[in-house]
Amino acid sequence: MKKTVTIGRAAYHEAGHAVAAIVLDVPLTLVSIEQQQGPFGLRIGGATFCPFNFSRALRNRAKSEKYLTVVLAGEVSERLWCAHKPTHPIQEIGFSLDREVVREMLKQVFKYRAERQRVLKHLKGEARRLVRNHWNSVELLAGKLEEFKVLNGAMVKRLIEPPKKS
Fold first, then answer.
1. How far is residue 91's CA from residue 98's CA, in Å, rounded to a whole number?
2. Cα distance between residue 109 and residue 83, in whole Å
3. d(CA 51, CA 85)
4. Of 17, 27, 93, 145, whose CB neighbour count within 10 A is largest?
């Protein structure tokens, strides 16, 4: 008898981050759905680690935007998953850490609030497009995360990138 695996919210959230990182060629070290203790006593359902030099990226707008799109892709992926599962309403608390990273980076790069809002709207659209275009990869990776809990960047890359033709 085949074992049935129920893929959860955290797996889709972290898979969204990881797939965006691979597609945008942002270095990915690890993706995990193991629960851990976060700031302010929050339980975090997972994490995606992309080595990132904040001060260097701030000098390069294209790199900043890639990284921010990776951060935004987690929420987008989770929202899309919830839309397919009406019995699983969105829980906003899970997005607060990602949103704080985005808010702080935008403050460093853009002086005016209106400009930050315009860029944020654009990057959210990019994250939505990316996740929708690569939804099969998000689903595949979410399933593997439910099975193994932790995957390194090389494993993720092998799972979602098509094999190179010789």
1. 14
2. 33
3. 33
4. 17
Q: Where are the domains of the chain?
A: 9-156
What does the pLDDT look like over 106-145, one tens digit per residue? 888 888 999 999 999 999 999 999 999 999 999 999 999 9
Residue-wise pLDDT tens digits, 18-50: 999 999 999 999 999 987 665 555 555 678 888
Paired tokens of 4: 């049935």
List, in sequence order, the alpha helices (H) in the chain. 9-23, 54-58, 61-84, 96-109, 113-133, 135-148, 153-160
Architecture of domain 9-156: Up-down Bundle (1.20)
- From the number of C-beta atoms within 10 Å of its C-beta (0-12, 13-18, 19+), residue 81 rates as buried
φ, ψ of residue 154 to 5 degrees: the values are -65, -40
Kindly give, in sequence order, each residue whose CB lies less than 8 Å from that of residue 146, ignoring residues fewer than 6 positions away: 5, 6, 7, 8, 11, 33
Q: In this structure, are strands 30-32 and 36-37 parallel, antiparallel, or unpaired?
A: unpaired
Please give the structure tokens belonging to residue 100: 């704080």
